[in-house]
Every structure is written in structure tokens, then in C-alpha cells.
Amino acid sequence: MIGDRIKELRNQNNISQQRLADLLNLTQQAIGKWEKGISEPNIEAIIKMSKIFNVTVSYLILGEEEADCNITKKEKRILKAYRNKPELQNAVDILLQIENKEENNSSIKIIEPTFIKQK
């Protein structure tokens, strides 16, 4: 049920019903009704929530994850920490920059100049 997924995602991301309602320009009561299965969000709200929670619309509606999103629980914890902690984002960005520099340096091939003798 979509309401269960909304509640789960909201709790995983430490977002209150009121905060989610504010982000969607709705009322807390609307969020509560979704989570209780009394009503369901419209497509506009579903699209906005997919962006807020960084999940697919398909996941919100059907509970289906993308085939290429099979990540371990540890990777999910790392991703959640990354999203919620700016200091981690900065550290990871620095590591990625270092990795990119190393990749670029290893792919650079020095070509020795060839001299052609003229007659």
C-alpha cells in the first residue's frame, strides 16, 4: 500500500508528517490519511515525493524497485548517511576527485616524438 511506503520512507528520512506536508504544500491531515489508507496522493504529490525521498514513482506506487538498484543494506545505510550529513558529502566528493585524478593520470600515455630524417 502506498501509504505504508510513504510512512516508511518518511521515518527512514526522519521527516515528520508536518514537514512532508510543508514540502508538498499540503496539510498534515492529508499525509495522515494516506498513511492510514483513507485516501491516496495524486500523481503530482507522488512525483514530488519520489524526488524528496530519491525513489522511483514506480516504487512509491507499486513497491517495485528498479532492477539495477539492488544494493546491500550496508550500501543503503551509507547512502542514507551521505544524504543526511553534509560533512560526509564533502569527504566523499574529495575522495571522488582524487579517484578521478588517479584514473586520468593512469590513462595518459606519453608519446615519444618521432623524428623523420629528410634527404
Structural class: mainly alpha
Helix proportion? 55-70%
Strand content: under 5%
Gyration radius from CA atoms, angstroms = 23 Å
Mean pLDDT level: 82
User: Counting H and I runs of at least 4 residues, what is the number of helices?
Assistant: 7
| DSSP E strands, number | 0
The coarse silhouette is elongated
Please mark out the parts with pLDDT under 50 across 5 or more consecutive residues, or reply none.
none
State the major sheet: none
User: What is the straight-line distance between the termini?
Assistant: 83 Å
Topology pattern, helix = H, strand = E: HHHHHHH
Folded structure, characterized:
The chain is mostly helical. Helix content is 66%, strand content 0%. It has seven helices and no strands. It has helices at 2-12, 17-24, 28-36, 43-53, 57-62, 73-84, 86-107. Helix 1 crosses helix 3 (28-36), helix 2 (17-24) crosses helix 3 (28-36) and helix 6 packs across helix 7. The chain is elongated, with a radius of gyration of 23 Å.
Describe, in short, the structure shown:
By secondary structure, this protein is mainly α. It contains seven helices and no strands.
Question: Which terms summarize this structure?
Answer:
single chain, 119 residues, mainly alpha, 7 helices, elongated
Topology:
Elements: H1 2-12, H2 17-24, H3 28-36, H4 43-53, H5 57-62, H6 73-84, H7 86-107
Helix pairs in contact: 1-3, 2-3, 6-7
